[in-house]
Amino acid sequence: MIEVYHNPRCGKSRNCLAFLDNANQEYKIIKYLEEAPNYEELSALIEKLNLKPIELVRQKEKIWIDHFKNQEMTDEAIIKVMVENPILIERPIIIKGNKAIIAREADKIEAFFQDL
């Protein structure tokens, strides 16, 4: 089953769901702002994305700029900050099995499904 980390207020996230609907893909929505992932879940997601934790952070969010920008932080500390402040997690994210992508562009989503 495809899982989608989704924020209903985000246009890119809504576009991702529309793409999946048009492609007749079944998926489960994870409203990560309402049910934030715990440390282990977010660590596993980062591994599936094949990213460094900082690459998953929305670095233009006010909370990041006000409290964390320009601080030296370990990967573990960055993950903890995202767990405590899930608004900092990039979106949308599509997960299928052991693979995941940040699905902000339709061509990335298309390529993701071709590679499965």
In short:
With 116 residues, the protein is α+β, with helices and mostly antiparallel strands. 42% of the residues lie in helices and 14% in strands.
What would you say this structure looks like, in words?
By secondary structure, the chain is α+β, with helices and mostly antiparallel strands. Helices cover 42% and strands 14% of the residues. It contains five helices and four strands. The protein has a four-stranded mixed sheet with strand order 2-1-3-4. The two termini are 13 Å apart. The mean pLDDT is 96.
Largest sheet: 4 strands, mixed
Task: Please give the count of helices.
Answer: 5
Gross geometry: globular
Beta content: 5-15%
Helix content: 40-55%
Question: What Rg, in angstroms, do the CA atoms define?
Answer: 14 Å
Contiguous uncertain segments of 5+ residues: none
Overall pLDDT level? 96
Derived structural class? alpha+beta
Strand order, sheet with most strands: 2-1-3-4
| Elements, N to C (H/E) | EHEHHHEEH
Number of strands: 4
Separation, N- and C-terminal Cα atoms = 13 Å
Task: Give the SSE map.
Blueprint: E1 2-5, H1 11-22, E2 27-30, H2 39-49, H3 62-67, H4 75-84, E3 93-96, E4 99-102, H5 106-115
Parallel strand pairs: 1-2
Antiparallel strand pairs: 1-3, 3-4
Structure keywords:
single chain; 116 residues; alpha+beta; four-stranded mixed beta sheet; 4 strands; 42% helix
